[in-house]
Amino acid sequence: MPSSSYFSRLVDRSLLSKSPTLSRIVHAQIVKVGFIPNTYWGNRCLQLYFKSGSVVDALQLFDDIPDKNTISWNVCLKGLLKNGYFNYALEVFDEMPERDVVSWNTVISGLDFCGFPEYGMRVFLDMKSLVVRPSEFTFSILASLVSCVGHGEQIHGNAICSGVSKSNLVVWNSVMDMYRRLGFFEYALSVFLTMEERDVISWNCLILCCSDSGNKEVALDQVGLMMEMGNGPDEYTVSTVLSICSDLRDLCKGKQAIALCIKMGFFGNSVVLGAAIDMFSKCKRLDDSVKLFRELEKWDSVLCNSMIGSYSWHGFGEDALRLFIVAMRQRIRPDKFTFSSVLSSMNAVMLDHGAQVHSLVIKLGCDQDTAVATSLMEMYFKTGLVDSAMRVFPTTDAKDLIFWNTVIMGLARNIRAAESLAVFNQLLMNRVLKPDRVTLLGILVACCYAGFVNQGIQIFSSMEKTHGVNPGNEHYASLIELLCRAGMINEAKDIAENIPFEPASDIWEPILYASLDLGDTRLAETVAKTMLKSEPNSSFPYLVLIKIYEMTLRWENSVKVRYAMNEQKMKSSQGSSKIGIKSSVYSFEAGQLQIHGGHETYTVLDLLSWDFDDQLHNSFH
């Protein structure tokens, strides 16, 4: 007869397989040898059934266990919660003859798992009222699910009052990360400084705190300090460092981080490789990103997402879509990050492909994700399909501020100002999210395009007082353009001259265009010279001055400006356009035709031109 150690190994292997059929076979064998009346083996089989998702079998077995102990109840409770049987799990919890700290921890973590994290604190308070002493895992679980600093401070205080040792890494790492996640970086730092022991998780959290608070250079310094203190970095550390280098656009330090990865043997990790691809891309070395990606022996979703995101970030939508298709053919299942990147890269001539990707999003159940819904709306707004974009709006439940901003700005740029203002008012009525500088810019753009002068001035005036947002260069630029479009050029000029910071050249552009339209060459000349002072490398003011001098017959001044422009080695920006033909996208630029068979195309165009000239010549004779 097989020994108990044999069945123990068999159960362990079956837990890894998660097969319902195998679970029933193992259970049958244990029953056959007469082990099942034993509570221990009943609990082990319960684990098997819940792990494989066979909840009905598990409940039937649970009823058959003659002498249930607290472990039996806890296994049943945890299994029901993990399989989504929330209400039934609470009934089991109420029926438990005896609850230990594991039971309470299971319910608190189960609430978070089932999407009810806000009830975790209530359960914790009930637990305290029944004088159940919390364990270190209780505080760790609570710290991971709180959403406001008030509850966080209660957890922190309770941990101290419960006598949790300052060397307890599980609790204090969790509390530190809780404060970081809530944006209270000084609190997180104070926890770090009071810890008697620190591990790599503690240091990783400190590095993230510095980075999230905007002190990215300081975050990189902590890596060196961490190594001096005897804590070696792990894969998460180096991937975070690479992400920080991406944000800083610091290629030199990024390469140093990659060298450290290779030295420590982390460069085979997908997350690290993905961060390296992203770092090269953000540092304007897309060729290096592509080279690194092509040298990989095996792709996965993380790596493909990084490369697709890199193509999208650089505006190479066709390449992003092509890689997306290749990854699908290699059975790499796209996730919400994949869809978000691909949809963001779509342009007007790729709309058919965008509709197909949208269908796939719905098929795979990713349409409810906020980031994917935002990218979908962005794609439709960008291609002018406002109604298609707005059909996504009511179907998205968890709307974050980026989502609202995308809707407001999308409607504004498609000259649907009234709808943009209505969505803005809807956001204000929610009172959950507060408008930021992007939100207010979207409203100003809407007012500008629609000519809503009074509303635009009112919004601009209320930015600091009502919404706590200081107007930036982009807000002033939108207000000035609004005034110029309304013919209020003197008011716009007064505002531009009294901006409390050094304005960028785009502040003056609307005034320059307005003065040219009015034929006021003196004002246009003054504004163009002002623009040259703020942005001397821009070709636009040079071209305007040349035009003004030629219009007013000041040829010598025109020659001087042309000479200065040549000295700066400037070229006027070339126009370009794209066209989609069947499954391909072709790009046209001034003086260049970038399609296969371009010479033949030019020949045909020349023939058509000659034929047109002949017909025109004959029509006059």
Number of helical stretches of at least 4 residues: 35
Largest sheet: 3 strands, antiparallel
The number of E-state strands comes to: 3
Helical residue percent?
over 70%
Widest beta sheet: strand line-up = 1-2-3
User: What is the average per-residue confidence, as pLDDT, rounded to a whole number?
Assistant: 84
Main structural class: mainly alpha
Apparent shape: elongated
Radius of gyration: 32 Å
Low-confidence segments, given as residue ranges, are 593-597
Distance between the termini: 113 Å
Share of residues in strands: under 5%
What does this structure look like?
With 621 residues, the chain is mainly α. Among the domains are: 311-398; 576-619, no CATH class. It has 35 helices and 3 strands. It has helices at residues 4-17, 20-32, 39-52, 55-64, 70-82, 86-95, 101-113, 120-129, 136-145, 149-161, 169-182, 185-194, 200-212, 216-228, 235-248, 251-264, 270-282, 286-294, 301-313, 317-329, 336-344, 351-363, 370-382, 386-392, 401-413, 417-430, 437-450, 453-467, 473-485, 489-497, 505-518, 521-534, 539-551, 555-567, 598-619; strands spanning 576-581, 584-589, 592-594. Strands 1-2-3 form a 3-stranded antiparallel beta sheet, with no helix packed on it. The N and C termini lie far apart (113 Å). The model is unreliable at 593-597 (pLDDT under 50).
